[in-house]
Amino acid sequence: MPLDQIDVDKMDEVPRIGAEEAEMSFIEHLEELRWHLIRAISSILVIAIAVFTFDKWVFKNIILAPKEPGFPIYQLLGFAPPEFQLETRVLGEQFIVSLKVSIILGIIFAFPFILWEIWRFIKPGLYANERKAARGIVLVCSALFAIGVAFGYFIISPFAITFLAGYNVGAVNAPTLDSYVNYMTMFTLPTGLIFELPIVAIFLKRIGLIDQEFMRTYRKHAFVVFLVFAAIITPPDVVTQFLIATPLYILYEISIRVVGRVEKREAKEEAKEAS
């Protein structure tokens, strides 16, 4: 809650969640944070170990699937990627890449638990109304992240792979396994984070940096920014560029409406306090 919305003289009257935690010393807060980080990192490691244990199945059915003609989007739209063979040119590359994939998938699948640990750490310092306003935040953020990752995996990666593998200036396309995994990571993990845009918009509204009118005024500028961003993280293909920029703009429009609802709720609360 912004400080200008709090009556300092009545601050002690506002119910605060976990008042006993609020009296913890700085060292005790660090100790509490340490255990939250340990649990979050442990969740990543547990999933990473499971992925590494079944690495052959993971690579065949998840990592390498978007390069195969049987991938769902190819069947749905009636096109197929060009055939190409992945190579390894460094001793131990397959082992290192397997570790990398295990950690990345560990982060992706443990993301809801990581958010939950973050929420558990900050929740004791919130007032009752702030906790109520943030109800369901972990579920919403996790859902948006999952949708973003799925969009990058099922939509962006097939078009990007088809374009990049099919682009030819006279050389033979023989990408390394490491470069392929790096591109797959770029198509999915950042997209999941980008889909948190509505949550970011609410946060910026809460701290007073933006409002609904500001977002409406600069919606055209935002679309240009999305196009530039899409051009940076995708191959120079107009179709793929719009495949990323369009959902980003839709998320921006959703964010405008969400921020508008926040403004209306804040206006009602201020009217009640004034009366």
- Please give the number of β-strands: 0
Mass-distribution shape: flat
Beta-strand percent range: under 5%
Cα gyration radius (Å): 23 Å
Low-pLDDT segments, ≥5 res: 1-22
Reading the helices and strands in chain order gives HHHHHHHHHHHH
The N- to C-terminal Cα distance equals 20 Å
How confident overall, as mean pLDDT? 85
Helix count equals 12
State the helical fraction: over 70%
**By helix and strand content, what is the structural category?**
mainly alpha
How would you explain this protein's 3D organization?
With 275 residues, this protein is an all-alpha fold. 72% of the residues lie in helices and 0% in strands. The protein folds into 2 domains: 3-193, no CATH class; 196-275, no CATH class. It has helices at residues 19-22, 26-53, 55-63, 72-77, 93-122, 128-133, 137-166, 177-194, 197-206, 212-217, 219-233, 238-274. Helix 11 packs across helix 12. The two termini are 20 Å apart.
A few lines on this structure:
It is built from twelve helices and no strands. The chain has helices at 19-22, 26-53, 55-63, 72-77, 93-122, 128-133, 137-166, 177-194, 197-206, 212-217, 219-233, 238-274.
Q: What is the element layout, followed by pairings?
A:
Layout: H1 19-22, H2 26-53, H3 55-63, H4 72-77, H5 93-122, H6 128-133, H7 137-166, H8 177-194, H9 197-206, H10 212-217, H11 219-233, H12 238-274
Helix pairs in contact: 2-5, 5-7, 5-8, 7-8, 7-12, 9-12, 11-12
Which short descriptors sum up this protein?
72% helix; single chain; 275 residues; flat
